[in-house]
Specification:
alpha+beta, 50s Ribosomal Protein L17, Chain: A, single chain, three-stranded antiparallel sheet
């Protein structure tokens, strides 16, 4: 996107974009500042469009842009299938108020028709009381 510098050097801006793209693909919804979300939206839409093309060249470009094979596979296998009938407009930006510290405008950027379970990818499941009891028994036995 032309003229969007986000007050960063070009290398920092590229790294920021790449990290935000990978996070958006992984969790399918992220909360960020409004200018960053507006900067990310066209890039994310281009990535999905690239994933819809089923050839080696587009796959290589996808991996080079994301620098993450898991994310590239998710775009190729899951997201491109989900949006095969849609011609663009894969993401939406929802304004989310202002940040407490500096009053920066916040926004949520997410995929349209997103998978609600994707937000819980990294979160550990809560332990049941039986598992907690087993851990306590092991601690007592070793002491």
């Amino acid at each position: 996107m032309a003229n969007k510098k986000l007050n960063r050097t070009s290398e920092h801006r590229k790294a920021l974009l790449k990290n935000m793209l990978v996070s958006l693909i992984k969790y399918e919804q992220i909360k960020t500042t409004l200018p960053k979300a507006k900067f990310l939206k066209p890039q994310a839409d281009k990535i999905i469009t690239l994933g819809k093309k089923d050839n080696l060249q587009s796959t290589k470009i996808l991996v080079s842009k994301l620098q993450d094979i898991k994310s590239a596979n998710k775009v190729k296998k899951e997201l491109s299938k989900r949006y095969e009938k849609r011609n663009g407009g894969y993401t939406r930006i929802i304004k989310a108020g202002f940040r407490y510290g500096d009053n920066a405008p916040m926004a949520i950027i997410e995929f349209v028709d997103r998978n609600l379970e994707a937000k819980r990818v990294d979160k550990k499941k809560k332990e049941t009381s039986k598992e907690i009891d087993k851990k306590e028994d092991k601690k007592v036995a070793s002491a």
